[in-house]
Each structure stands twice: as C-alpha cells, then as structure tokens.
Amino acid sequence: MIVKELERLLIDMNIPSHAYSVSGGLPNEAFCIGQSGDVWETYYSERGSKTSIREFGSESEACEYFLKCIKRTFKK
C-alpha cells in the first residue's frame, strides 16, 4: 500500500479529515504519516510535538501500521 491508497481508504472509512495527515507536519491532535529522508514515520501530533513515533524502512510498512492505528482508534 502507498500513501495515496491509504488516503483513499481513510476517506472510504469516513474518518474525519482533521483526525489525520498523510503529508506529515504538525497538525493539532492528528495521526500523521510522512517521510523523513529514507525513513517513513508515523506519529501523533499534539500541540506542535510528535508523540508515539514509529519509524519504518518502507512506505508500505508505515501505511499498514498507520491504518491499524486508525482502525483501533475509530473502531472501524
């Protein structure tokens, strides 16, 4: 899975767009996924800080983990 596919799944699951960012950054109170150099990161952004950071060697691994976190949080 790549980020574009992940984004389509999140839309199809009716996950509120303010609850996530598929382009990284530091939005307030949102799950985020992004690339930092050769590493893909997933994290929760809150008040300008990254928490629960996980790093992955591939986009696919990061997307799968991100989707699992979203499903667990939104119980979809």
How would you describe what is shown here?
With 76 residues, the protein is of the alpha+beta class. Helix content is 34%, strand content 33%. The chain has a four-stranded mixed sheet, with helices on one face. It is globular, with a radius of gyration of 11 Å. It starts with a helix and ends with a helix.
- Helical proportion? 25-40%
Largest sheet: 4 strands, mixed
Strand/helix succession? HEEEEH
Radius of gyration, taken over Cα atoms and rounded to an integer in Å: 11 Å
Distance between the termini: 18 Å
Low-confidence runs (pLDDT<50, min 5 residues)? Answer: none
Class from secondary-structure proportions? alpha+beta
Number of DSSP strand runs = 4
Strand order of the largest sheet: 1-2-3-4
Q: Shape from CA axes?
A: globular
**Beta fraction of the residues?**
25-35%
Q: Average pLDDT, to the nearest integer?
A: 96
Alpha plus pi helix count:
2
